[in-house]
Specification:
Helices cover 33% and strands 29% of the residues. By secondary structure, it is of the alpha+beta class. The strands form two sheets. A four-stranded mixed β-sheet has the order 3-5-6-4. Strands 1-2 form a two-stranded antiparallel ribbon. The longest helix is centred in the last third of the chain and has 18 residues, at 75-92. The two termini are 19 Å apart.
Length: 93
Amino acid sequence: MAGEGMEIKLVNIGFGNIVAANRIVAIVSPESAPIKRIIQEAREKGVLVDATYGRRTRAVIIVDSGHIILSAVQPETVANRLSAKEASGADEE
């Protein structure tokens, strides 16, 4: 089978929304001015994915495709879920 070794790991970013873990470049807080600028530019370019369901943005996830994903869960929570997925994947091998 082609790509048999390429298992896609997924991470829950809140409210049942899931992102491919291997595509995540950074998980940051939305507080700083540069991150707010990145969010605004992504909105203008049409590459912003708002997964907050109308709640306050607590984490900004930057993926390798250039898309910016807004999440209502804390960056630490997303990172913990991501590292838990990696740890469970390492146990299976």
